[in-house]
């Protein structure tokens, strides 16, 4: 089944819905973000000059809870060394529990890829934990995983 939803950039009126989903995302990872971090993230998402952006999935008219935000993809655009166009890194992807398995996650990623094609970004990339089976099931249907391995030095 495909949940009828519209993928779009968020606006100021989406704050409550986005925050509810963001809390769900933090809970999924078992982390807490101080309120000022969430406030600042939302401010940056709404500020087009910041490199942090988002897409949200909103249920469509005709669905029993039309107008609800049921998912988001937060992404950053950053410079890279092989050309003038920025590349896109999808930082966070989340779909509300009761909207999963209905194509929302796929729709968010496909919308981001489409936006990248339109804007001329050379790539869209993301990571996931190797044990995150639902996420990997979705990602493997979009693109084969690449062979790069991440190294991380924690500084904080
Ligand atoms: C991962 C996540 C975003 C997937 O969102 P979703 O809306 O449920 O995914 P979709 O319904 O678009 O799934 C698309 C495909 O992946 C497959 N898939 C998704 N979840 C699956 C699961 N739990 N088990 C098996 N396959 C799954 C579906 O079969 C579907 O295939 P199809 O398009 O051929 O039917 C969602 O489970 C989520 O928010 N999880 C918690 C946060 C998270 O893990 N985020 C990613 C961090 S990297």
Can you describe what's shown?
- By secondary structure, this protein is α+β, with helices and mostly antiparallel strands.
- Helices cover 34% and strands 25% of the residues.
- It is built from 4 helices and 5 strands.
- It has a 5-stranded mixed beta sheet with strand order 1-2-3-4-5, with helices on both faces.
- Bound molecules: coenzyme A.
- GO terms for molecular function: N-acetyltransferase activity.
**CATH superfamily placement:** Gcn5-related N-acetyltransferase (GNAT)
State the low-pLDDT regions, or none. none
Structural class: alpha+beta
Oligomer: single chain
Q: What is Rg?
A: 16 Å
**CATH class descriptor name:** Alpha Beta
How much beta, percentage-wise? 25-35%
List the ligand species.
Answer: coenzyme A
Number of strands: 5
Q: What is the count of distinct domains?
A: 1
How do the helices and strands follow one another from N- to C-terminus? Answer: EHHEEEHEH
| CATH fold topology | Aminopeptidase
Number of separate helices: 4
Which outline best applies? globular
